[in-house]
């Protein structure tokens, strides 16, 4: 896949959205019906990855935090998370950026585009950062858990094991130490 042929565009209310279908109706509907409202209301910012004729992928991001409540009040999960973060000072919550939505067009799945987007976000949030952001979070659909695991996201707790989505996180400090 030649990523240099794709354009990354920040969605604004004036922006035309080229055709897109990732096979998931909720995600498709979000892009065409809600994404611009989320932008106007400052709820989330959406980015489009486009080629000449189509939207190849999109993702939306928003601010987040990880706190004890997110572990579904599992003391052992919270201690494990804090030990993984391993800062000198323990905080009551840790600043994060959430991937609110992420979808890759059916035609372009399994070609590395989802990974390309995650790598882009990992670098974006540690480069010239304007606010503190330690982790990327996502409420991952069950069908996408393997994808996030391959991209080194971890579960915060096992208490959401039987739910439709699982809270996963990626520690951005890993990227800083690997540079
Ligand atoms: C999940 C999704 C974003 C992955 O994007 P993608 O561009 O197809 O993923 P990549 O090509 O970067 O795949 C990276 C790795 O994850 C694996 N992977 C991707 N999707 C997978 C799936 N559904 N099940 C199992 N493994 C998967 C790939 O096999 C690949 O592994 P490899 O490096 O060993 O080859 C995409 O399939 C999608 O849009 N799905 C529908 C919507 C969705 O579930 N979004 C997530 C919302 S939380």
Rg from Cα: 17 Å
Oligomer: single chain
Helix proportion: 25-40%
Order of helices and strands: EHEEHEHEHEEH
> How widely separated are the two ends?
24 Å
Number of strands: 7
State the major sheet. 7 strands, mixed
Bound molecules: coenzyme A
Write up this protein:
This protein is of the alpha+beta class. Helix content is 28%, strand content 28%. The protein is built from five helices and seven strands; from the N terminus they run βαββαβαβαββα. Strands 1-2-3-4-5-7-6 form a seven-stranded mixed beta sheet, sandwiched between helices. β4, α3 and β5 form a beta-alpha-beta unit. The longest helix has 16 residues, at 25-40.
What key attributes describe this structure?
179 residues, alpha+beta, 7-stranded mixed beta sheet, 7 strands, 28% helix
Question: How are the secondary structure elements laid out?
Answer:
Elements: E1 7-10, H1 25-40, E2 45-50, E3 55-67, H2 75-85, E4 93-104, H3 113-124, E5 135-141, H4 145-150, E6 154-155, E7 165-171, H5 173-178
Parallel strand pairs: 4-5
Antiparallel strand pairs: 1-2, 2-3, 3-4, 5-7, 6-7
Residues 22-24, 27, 102-104, 109-115, 138, 140-141, 143-144, 146-147, 150 line the site of coenzyme A (COA).
